[in-house]
Amino acid sequence: MSTSTLAPTLIRVPAVWREAALVSMGVLFLALSAQVAIPLPFTPVPLTGQTFAALLVGGAYGAARSVSTLLAYLAVGVVGLPVFADGAHGMTTLLSATGGYLVGMVLAAGIVGAAAEHGWDKALLSSIAAMFAGTAVIYIIGAGWLATALAVGPGEAFDLGVQPFVVGDLLKLALAGAVLPAAWRLIGQARR
């Protein structure tokens, strides 16, 4: 079992500074990815880069660090920084119909991070499998929350909050799944 994940392997400074830097960089990465947002007229859920960022943070940071980073991201958004999709912020965003996707990203990052801590980030197929599991968690929590917020059934929640995003999310999870093993190969080559 491997307990080393990508990010702390790359950043070599005292632990407290490394942790603060990693969390800050992760929050910034998530905030910037959220601004890559395409509203879809038939659903309140926009197409964003957040899921890609959350999965990548999970795989690169490990379980505890990625959950801390995602929680910090939610916290800075709730207190008023415009870090959510399209510069949204505040508790109302977190409690909106799309808030479940944000909550789902926290759990997804933790799952992907736990898989990375067990070496799943070092091989393409296992890395993609971890990203797939994380994406499934985002869908389950996000669509369930959406159904509750809009008072619709599971079928309509699927049509509004999952189906339009499947192709894009498969591409994002494949890309995120490919980045981590490639980064490990580069590190291995650099150390020779």
Briefly, what is this?
The chain has 192 residues and is an all-alpha fold.
Task: Give structural notes.
By secondary structure, the chain is mostly helical. The protein has a single domain, classed as Arp2/3 complex 21 kDa subunit ARPC3, CATH 1.10.1760. The protein contains nine helices and two strands. Strand 1 and strand 2 form a beta hairpin. The mean pLDDT is 93.
Biggest sheet overview? 2 strands, antiparallel
Return the string of H and E elements.
HHEEHHHHHHH
**What overall geometry do the principal axes of the alpha carbons give?**
globular
Binned strand content: under 5%
Query: Tally of extended strands?
Result: 2
For the largest beta sheet, what order do the strands appear in spatially?
1-2
Distance from first to last alpha carbon: 23 Å
Low-pLDDT windows of residues? none
- Count every helix, treating DSSP H or I runs of 4 or more residues as helices: 9
Query: Can you name the CATH architecture?
Result: Orthogonal Bundle
Structural class: mainly alpha
Fold-level CATH name: Arp2/3 complex 21 kDa subunit ARPC3
- Any idea of the CATH class? Mainly Alpha
Q: Evaluate the radius of gyration.
A: 16 Å
In total, the number of domains comes to 1
The level of helicity is: over 70%
Mean pLDDT: 93
